[in-house]
Amino acid sequence: MTRTTERLAVTTPPTTDLDEATALRHQLADELAAAGHIRTPAVDRALRTVPRHAFAPERPLHAAYANEIIATRHSDDGTVISSISAPWLQADMLEAARIQPGHHALEIGSGGYNAALIAELTGPTGHVTTLDIDPAVTDRATRFLTQTGYGRIRVVTADAEHVPAEVVPDGGFDAIVVTVDTWDLPWIDALAEGGRLVAPLRLHGYHWAISFTKRDGALHSDEPLIVCGFVAMRGDGAWHRNRCTVPGTGVHLSWEDGTPLPVDELAPALTCEPTVTHTHVTVGGQEPFDALTLYLAGALPGYCRLSADSDGDNGVLNPPPKHWPGAAIVRGNSLARLATERIGDGDDGKGLYEFVVHGHGTRGHLAAQEMAEQVRHWQHNHRGALCPHITARPTASCAPPARDHELHVFAKKHTRITVDWPIVPGPAALLIDRGSCSAR
Ligand SMILES: C[S@@+](CC[C@H](N)C(=O)[O-])C[C@H]1O[C@@H](n2cnc3c(N)ncnc32)[C@H](O)[C@@H]1O
C-alpha cells in the first residue's frame, strides 16, 4: 500500500509559548505529518486547531491527545458502541475525502470532534451535518460543539440507513465521511455527482476504509484502501455475520456476503487429519495479506471465514486459526482452509511463512488444490497491485446476476460491489520451489 509521505513544514510554535493542551495537539499533528497521515495544509491546520480534549473531558489531557481511539459509550455487555476514532485514521479519511471550503459535508456517526475537523475544512461558507442513531451521542456532540464554538454544525438523530431527505442539500453532498463499520453504501443518491464518499466497508467480513468518487451515478475507488476497525453499524443497516457452527466442534463458518452452505455434514471431515497443499507462495511474519483474502473471497464460490473457539474446537484444527477468522471454502461434506507454515526467519528476523491449504474430508484435497491455485494466481497476476479498484453501483441500476456466484462481485442490499484486480505480478522471489501436495 503506498502512501504519500511528503513532509509538511512543521508549524509548531515553541512549546514554551503554549498551554499544555495546545502543545500536545501540535505534538500529535507533528507525529501524524511525519508518518504521512497528514498530507495537506488544510488537514494539518484543522488538527492543530480543534481541541480534541474538549470532546473527551473524562480523559486526562495526555490520553485525549494519544494517537489512539477513545471509547465514549458502551452497551450493557461492555461492547464499545461509540468512540472518537484514532487521530491517524481521522487524518487519513479526511485527506481521502478532499473536502474544500464551501462544501456541504455529511458525517455519518457522530461524536463532535471529527465534525469540528470537517467544519475547519469547509470553512465559514460551508455546511456540515453530522448524523447518529443514538440520542445520547447526538446530545453529547451538540453540547461539546456548542461549547467549542462549532454550534453551526447541524446534528441530526437518525438511522443512517434512512438519511432524512430534508437534510440532503439540492444536488447532494459534496462529501460524505462514514465513521461507522458498514456492510453497504446506501448513500449514493445523497452524494453529488463528482462528490467523494469515504467509508469503512465490510466485504465478506474484511473491512477497509475505501474512498470513492461518484461518476455517472456509481462510486469508483481511486486511492489505496486503509485497513481499519470501527464500531458496528446499528439499526436497519446492521450487518449479519451469518455464522453457522459445525455441530460438536466449536468451529464456526461465516457467510457475510454469501449464501450459507449446510455445515452439518462437516463434523467428520474436521476430525480427520488434513491433507496439506503447498502454494509455493511466501509471506513475511509482519506482512499483511488482507488483499489475498479479499481476492479469494471474490474468486471462490462457497467462500466463508472460519474461526474456532480457543477451548472448544476439540483439537480438530491444528494449528487453529489465530487472531482473525481465516479464509475457507466448503465443498459438500469437505472443506479447505488457508493456513501458513513457518519456513524460516526471513530477512528481518520476523519469520518467513508459506501459504498452505489444509483439506478436510473426502474431497478436501481437491478443494485445497482449488484454493491453492487461486493463491498462486493472485501471486502471479495481482499481488504487486497491493489493492484493487472497487466500484459500487446502485442495485436498482444493475441487471440481475447471470448466476449465483459472479466472480469478484459482492451483492449487497443497496449496491452491487465489483472488485477489479489490476494485472501487476508479485515479486518472483516470493515464490519458493517445493513439492506441491503432502499428507500430514
Ligand atoms: C466511531 S463512532 C463516530 C466517531 C465520530 N465520528 C468521531 O468524532 O470520531 C460511530 C458512531 O456511529 C453511530 N452509529 C451506529 N449505527 C448507526 C446508524 N445506523 N446510523 C447512524 N449512526 C450510527 C454510533 O452510535 C457511534 O456513535
From TrEMBL:
One GO term of the biological process aspect: methylation
Gene3D superfamilies given in the database record: Vaccinia Virus protein VP39 (3.40.50.150)
Presence of keyword ATP-binding: no
Localization in the cell: Cytoplasm
UniProt-listed Pfam families: PCMT (PF01135)
Enzyme Commission (EC) number: 2.1.1.77
Primary enzyme class: transferase
GO molecular function list: methyltransferase activity
Domain of life of the source: Bacteria
Keywords attached to this entry: Cytoplasm, Methyltransferase, S-adenosyl-L-methionine, Transferase
Protein family according to the UniProt entry: Belongs to the methyltransferase superfamily. L-isoaspartyl/D-aspartyl protein methyltransferase family.
PANTHER family: PROTEIN-L-ISOASPARTATE O-METHYLTRANSFERASE, PROTEIN-L-ISOASPARTATE(D-ASPARTATE) O-METHYLTRANSFERASE
Protein name (record): Protein-L-isoaspartate O-methyltransferase
Gene name as annotated: fxlM
